Amino acid sequence: MGNLVDVAVMLGGVLVAPEHTVMQRLAERRITPEVITVFDIQPFNNGWKYPTPSGGYRWKNADSKADPKYKWLDDGKPETDNFYHAQDIAHAIYNAGGACWFVSGEADVWAMQSAGVTHVMSGYTEAQVSTELPAYLESMGVTVLYIAPDLDQAGARWARLIAQALQESSIELDARQLPDTLGDKGDIGKAWAGYTKRQPFERWLLGLSRFTPEPEPKTELPALINDAAVIPIGYRQLIADILLATEYQSDGFTKKNVRCPFHDDGKHADASLHKEKGLYCHVCGRWFTWNETGIKIGAGSLQEWRLTNTYALSTELREALIRDNKTSLSRLLDAVALKDWRAGKEFTRKDAVTACNDWLSSKTIRNATNQLNTYCPFLLSFFITTSMKEKKGIKSRPQMVYSLPKLSELANKLQVRQYHFDEMPPHKIKRAADYRAEVYAALPRRKAGKYARKTLTERIGVSTRTGQSYDKRANLLVTPNIEKQELTPAEIAGLPEKVFKNRKYNVWLEDEKGKRHKPDKESIKRITDNGGGKVYRVTQLANTYQAG
After folding, report:
1. Least enclosed by CB within 10 Å: which of 46, 69, 296, 415?
2. What is the DSSP code (8-state) at residue 97?
């Protein structure tokens, strides 16, 4: 039997532990059945698979010493998946008075939840900390963030990265030192697995020694945002007013220096404000972006300013409306934003037609206002005024009067978080297909890279074929990626006898002449009859997308 197992492994087989053994390892970690159910943890390939908040799937190895420990499954990591937690995390943080625990991995989330600590989340890895951490925590109402780093160098650096990420925010960082008795690489999961005290686990954690991690030094200068269309003039003017910056020279810098808020010496004006690039401090020797400067001087982040001072749709909100078959409504909201309409403005359908006739037809506006009505049972308090008004002096059919919704409340209702405010060119609002293509292309334009087509199309709820047409319509540069490997005799022997013609595959066979074949033994016979030669398995990988 031993020889058979060795041969199977040599031919690419995988030894899989029985399900009861894998689940027993969870029990050894004191992960409760309730937590297993809440997080939908399932046995899978010598470990566990489980869904993530943004719809992805992760796998964790049951052997913590094995490599890899964690892996993304299916289409890989969703672009918005930066934090792991239970669905009711915001409610748990509210009940905890604004406190939140941040742990190094998903297993530690399960351990803390098993210990009764529900206000806990993770960033998936210790290697890096998302730049979106402060904004995400603030959106959840977090005022104090607790951490208890692992007892190794990676844990110490992780604590410094968190300190760096939070140093410009109002969130208090409270770091606790795990006891040395846990041994090298001791962590929260290990502490919970061996915990026997009667007092609650969180009370024990908060009784540990407190320490202050030094922020990890930044290794490179922040990217400069030079596009005036990206940084609204109102936000730049607000920062300039607070810094007492008035006149600018021909090179874009202020005629007089301003005080730098990023170092202790507040007596001397030793920084220059550029009307497009941001703040440069001659003492610090570096640039500070508009967003960094706004947060530091109390003007708020760019995102906060946009949500408060402009009527601007985020890409996330546009995607949610399109997924919900409300493209006309999304186009209308973008159109009235161009007319500088604000939340709460009352308008009739005729008012909208008059204001938006450069971009939208009366039929589109009628569809949009009808779509507005469909939200009425859910958003009555802020979305639509159902009273009827007659215009004075005109005997005509009464008109419905609508109230322009607050985008933040609409986003909350649609359960989306607004992070990216990609510009929508006015001429792209005119046609629904052009509009949807712009929303579809916003992510790869902003962040070029490899994406599964399903990841892009599902964001707006369209088919793969439609996504391919949007690539051309939005002028995206799409580069296919494949993996090509010569088949071994054992792999050829493991092919199915025949596959059906009507099935679609992202894997195919290729002969030495470059001709494609179905991945079955019937194709191998055909290749052999035509002269034979090497046979390759070709796997289609995620395409690379970027602006064309």
Report:
1. 415
2. T
